[in-house]
TrEMBL record:
It comes from Setaria viridis. This is BHLH domain-containing protein. Residues 1-52 form the BHLH domain. GO terms for molecular function: protein dimerization activity. It comes from the Eukaryota.
């Protein structure tokens, strides 16, 4: 084995980029239809992940607010708790 141990081939990189592109929302995929660069795709992926984090934080705050207004022994609160497990 030569110095290539641990290296990824260009074909493997292209396959991983295609898989990553397929995970992006439809609107991003349309923009990338013209085979954008890997660095642009990675930047867009990072932006998408950041937006997902913001969405999760927002939903967590909203859920926390909803739970604080509920009676902890109510059937609705129990359903929400069971869904979060």
């Amino acid at each position: 084995m030569s110095g290539r141990r641990g290296r990824i081939s260009d074909d493997e990189i292209n396959e991983l980029i295609s898989k990553l592109q397929a995970l992006l929302p439809e609107s991003s995929r349309r923009r990338n239809a013209s085979r954008s660069s890997a660095s642009k795709l990675l930047k867009e992926t990072c932006s998408y992940i950041k937006s997902l984090h913001r969405e999760v934080d927002d939903l967590s705050e909203r859920l926390s607010g909803l739970m604080s207004t509920m009676d902890n022994d109510s059937p609705q609160a129990e359903i929400i708790r069971s869904l979060l497990r």
